[in-house]
Write a structure and sequence with these properties.
The protein is mainly alpha-helical and about 130 residues long. The protein contains three helices and no strands. The two termini are about 15 Å apart.
Length: about 130
Amino acid sequence: MPLPGASASDPRSRGLFASLRRFGSTFAAVLHSRVELLALEFERERVRVTRLLLLGIAAYFFLSLGAFTATAFIIVLFWDSQRLIAIGFLTFVYIAIGIGIILYAKREADRAARPFSSTLAELRKDRDELTRP
């Protein structure tokens, strides 16, 4: 749409719209690079969280060994009187805790997605649209 008082063939109107188009294209490119940088930072954070998860698994392993040792101690302690009740109770507690952790982990895994993938795709489309002649 030409400026008021300018015709469509006026070089000033084409220059202004071309400048605005270039500005929009540059703005979209800058915004796109910033969002990609943000996604990269989130990816680094994911690596950090993975490392923490591995440390958590190692801690879980050694805590499990401690629980196993405590279980053996309790069973030996009640060996003469109530060993089957002690074994059954501890088995029930461990299975219940394990099922709770599995359900929680499944719920958390279902929520995970690559951060900003839709936003990056939309910004690419915007950039392509603005740079198209």
